[in-house]
């Protein structure tokens, strides 16, 4: 029984670590968007400085998953949990990378005169953050129903991205002087759209963990 | 606890390029229907129904005393030799009930060979061990045919290259792993159709265990293999389908991949994840 408790402890520790990584990704995105909207380059630099810790956490999770698989040979729901975490950690790390890219764009844009605001961009960021928080909650509680709902809501980000894309192209045509800066915002929009896709991946892994069902690529 | 009404049908998936082909369902070699088994007044097996397809490896897993070895032994009537035992129900091999009145038990055991946990070579030469079954069953008509069958069995058991130059030496001089493969060769020599293995590698070191597992993988191209094992990783490695027993009942039988990633029954999940009890 002690051995089983030991495994439970290790799985619990793994869960804590991946949630910590999720929290880091969430915070990085939130702060990067703050840096962009409030023109605060110092906060953007903090996001970039913190990225090494996020990378380190991902490597730790990788190691922990390998150790559990090698030493404990988990099966059934334990195996699905470890596999889901092993696949989820790099996804969370990539979300944090996209946040870093947004932070870099913020630093560049903050050195230039302020642009007129693009409301859909902040709506996209808010929606992406809500999706990410929801995905981490669904993972924590093993809630496949919630995970599926979040997957559906990715279309909203895609719609916002399309609106933002057209709006920014329009601005580039009408005000060529700001085209370079608008292009940077276009990349920010693309990063947010990709984050929505990554959150979808996380939710698909939660469904696999909870139900052993592969829903990836099932449209 | 789930109650079985129909024998579980096993869809055999593809595992490491072995027969049967991917995605096909092979024909049933062994069909067990409503089998109950008693040691005196104690019922050890309850209403077991299961179908074992031809040329696959099926593993039986479960905690000690769950009835998996008892069930294995019902498949070639090895329990008959235990006084006070009683069996009810049917075990059909190629649609013939092995417990039907008048069933030929000697012929049955020729068709259904068995390998035990502890290797049990006879205190004879390597050659004579393998030739034993062939001689007492008068299977071969000449010395050269006998030698050919012994060589074939030793090759099938992946032992030939290690013993071909010392066939006349005592079988007891072999290592534990070699002795176990010799016992497998002895079982194979009479060309059984089904091979029952009761924890065949539990007393062996990892290298010898690996050889036995590779052998099982090769043998399933020709034989239907049923293996009892306490080692769940071994069941996962060698078997196509796995059956989980608990307290004399068959709880679940499923494709091994499914069993070890997403079993249907909570009892199976609890056992496989080590949270049983």
What multimeric state do the chains show?
Answer: heterodimer
Element-by-element helix/strand order of chain A: HHHHHH
User: Which CATH class of chain A applies here?
Assistant: Mainly Alpha
Q: Output the CATH homologous superfamily of the domain at 28-119 and 193-272 in chain B.
A: P-loop containing nucleotide triphosphate hydrolases
Question: In angstroms, what is the radius of gyration of chain A?
Answer: 19 Å
Strand order of the largest sheet of chain B: 6-7-8-3-9-10
Query: Could you tell me the mean pLDDT of chain B?
Result: 89
Keyword list:
heterodimer, A: 219 residues, Methane Monooxygenase Hydroxylase, Chain G, domain 1, B: 277 residues, alpha/beta, Rossmann fold, four-stranded antiparallel beta sheet, disordered N terminus
How would you portray this structure in words?
- Chain A is built from six helices and no strands.
- With 219 residues, chain A is mainly α.
- Chain A has one domain: Phosphate transport system protein phou homolog 2, domain 2 (Methane Monooxygenase Hydroxylase, Chain G, domain 1, Up-down Bundle).
- Chain B has 277 residues and is of the alpha/beta class.
- Chain B has a domain at 28-119 and 193-272: 3-Layer(aba) Sandwich (Rossmann fold).
- Chain B is built from ten helices and ten strands.
- Chain B has helices at residues 68-74, 105-111, 126-136, 143-156, 160-163, 176-189, 206-219, 232-238, 256-261, 266-272; strands spanning 28-39, 42-53, 57-61, 85-93, 96-97, 112-115, 194-198, 224-228, 241-246, 249-255.
- A six-stranded mixed beta sheet of chain B has the order 6-7-8-3-9-10, sandwiched between helices. Chain B has a four-stranded antiparallel beta sheet with strand order 2-1-4-5, covered by helices on one side.
- In chain B, helix 3 runs parallel beside helix 6, helix 4 packs across helix 6 and helix 6 runs parallel beside helix 7.
- Chain B is globular, with a radius of gyration of 19 Å.
- The two termini of chain B are 14 Å apart.
- Chains A and B meet through helix 1 and helix 3 of A and helix 8 and helix 10 of B.
């Amino acid at each position: 029984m002690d051995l089983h408790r030991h495994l439970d402890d290790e799985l619990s520790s793994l869960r804590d670590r991946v949630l910590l990584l999720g929290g880091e990704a969430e915070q990085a995105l939130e702060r990067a968007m703050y840096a962009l909207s409030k023109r605060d380059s110092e906060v953007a630099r903090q996001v970039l400085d913190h990225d090494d810790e996020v990378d380190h956490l991902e490597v730790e999770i990788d190691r922990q998953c390998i150790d559990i698989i090698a030493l404990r040979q988990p099966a059934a729901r334990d195996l699905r949990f470890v596999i889901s975490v092993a696949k989820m950690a790099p996804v969370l790390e990539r979300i944090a990378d996209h946040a870093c890219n947004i932070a870099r764009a913020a630093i560049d844009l903050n050195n230039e005169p302020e642009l007129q605001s693009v409301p859909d961009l902040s709506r996209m960021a808010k929606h992406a953050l809500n999706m990410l928080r929801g995905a981490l909650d669904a993972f924590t509680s093993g809630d496949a129903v919630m995970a599926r709902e979040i997957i559906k809501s990715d279309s909203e980000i895609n719609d916002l991205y399309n609106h933002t894309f057209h709006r920014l192209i329009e601005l580039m045509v009408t005000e060529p002087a700001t085209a370079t800066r608008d292009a940077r915002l276009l990349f920010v929009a693309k990063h947010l759209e990709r984050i929505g896709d990554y959150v979808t991946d996380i939710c698909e892994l939660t469904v696999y963990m909870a139900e052993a069902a592969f829903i990836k690529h099932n449209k | 606890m789930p109650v079985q009404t129909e024998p579980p049908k096993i869809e055999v998936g593809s595992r490491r390029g072995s027969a049967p082909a991917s995605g096909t369902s092979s024909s049933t070699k062994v069909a067990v229907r409503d089998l109950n088994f008693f040691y005196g007044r104690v019922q050890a097996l309850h209403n077991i129904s299961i179908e074992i397809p031809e040329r696959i490896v099926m593993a039986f897993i479960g905690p000690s005393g769950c009835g998996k070895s008892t069930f294995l032994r019902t498949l070639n009537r090895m329990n008959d030799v235990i006084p006070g035992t009683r069996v009810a129900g049917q075990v059909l091999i190629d649609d013939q009930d092995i417990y039907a009145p008048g069933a030929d038990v000697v012929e049955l055991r020729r068709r259904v060979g068995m390998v035990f946990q502890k290797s049990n070579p006879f205190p004879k030469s390597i050659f004579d061990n393998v030739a034993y079954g062939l001689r007492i069953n008068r299977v071969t008509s000449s010395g050269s045919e006998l030698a050919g069958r012994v060589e074939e069995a030793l090759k099938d058991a992946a032992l030939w290259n290690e013993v071909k130059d010392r066939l006349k030496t005592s079988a007891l001089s072999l290592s534990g792993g070699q002795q176990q493969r010799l016992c497998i060769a002895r079982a194979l020599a009479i060309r059984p159709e089904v091979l029952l293995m009761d924890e065949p590698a539990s007393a062996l070191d990892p290298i010898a265990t690996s050889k036995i597992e590779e052998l099982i993988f090769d043998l399933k191209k020709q034989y239907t293999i049923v293996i009892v094992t306490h080692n769940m990783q071994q069941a996962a490695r060698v078997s196509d389908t796995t059956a989980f027993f608990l307290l004399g009942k068959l709880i679940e039988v499923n494709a091994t991949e499914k069993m070890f990633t997403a079993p249907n029954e909570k009892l199976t999940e609890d056992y496989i994840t080590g949270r049983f009890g």
